[in-house]
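Table S2 (continued). Query chain:
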Amino acid sequence: MDQRYGVDPYLDWLAKERIPVVEDYGVDLFQVATADWPRVGMQGAAVHLKGRGDFCNMFLYEIPPAASSSPQRHLYEEVIYVLEGRGSTQIESAGGQMHSFEWGPRSLFAIPLNATYRLFNASGKERALLVSTTDLPLVMNIFHNEKFVFENPFDFSDRLGKSEYFSGQGDLITVRPGNHMWETNFVPDLAKIELKTWSDRGAGGSNIMFVLADGAMHAHISEMPPGTYKKAHRHGPSFHVMCVLGHGFSLLWFEDQQDFLRIDWKHGVVFTPSDRQFHQHFTTCSSPARYLATAVGGSRYPFTLAQRRSILGAASGEKGAVSTSIKDGGDQIEYEDQDPRIHAMWLEDLKKHGATPRMEKFFPALA
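Corresponding output:
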């Protein structure tokens, strides 16, 4: 008798797809090899970051010149970021509503749940390279039925939102610094979208949260001014961090751990802090640096109790918020409490890149 024990339906499904699978702490997506993927009609690969947890993954899509994907439809959510190339997306709801929009480098968009869609490369000479963050591991492991996930007829037309959400327009929902939300389905250029100040995270930083296709997938964009870095913090798993503008590095470590894991980043590099692993982001360029974070569970629909405490803690007075000091029961390390090696390490790197430090307000004795 075949004893089914410890089964991972997602990994079993992925093995049958026969595409490359890359796993590491940090990955340069431009260096990932892809292969023909008959299911999607493109070349593809799966990217598994070691800190991603159990809920999500990444797929890399490479669309050859003048080509397009096959029509796709699935019962998992997908947030897509354009690494290079230009093209368009066509979306059709189960009720027959059609929407299309054109994208380019650094565009971000979400596919409304279970809508049929195709991706088109507008160039006849250059490839288009896109990366998606999905909750397929979660969905496949719950239902463990491929036909149910990919051939489900249920209509989620309520996820489409306003028609202008497909043209790059959206609605700003003001909550509080750090949690202001931009609701849309498509962001034409993450390098140009206006961000809102979030001083609690340190050194003049700013951000905006996204609500994309009214989904449970999270996305936010953060910016660090030149010559600065953010405060260290920790949270639950699944947050995929991708550089959008600039260059720098991040340090990752667990509480009471003496050594840092360092990830150097530039556009196209992605990494994922593990569950409850402290991480801190540093810019080493003379211009602002921006990064995109995607995950399962966000401001509108926190997926776990830990996320709810992390996201909503500061407003509700509950301990555990990522912008509340660990001295007050939160998950953020203030500048004055950080390991003294960190600032010196950053200054050395900044000097190598010929950039000027602008942290004298927080470290006057070292200015």
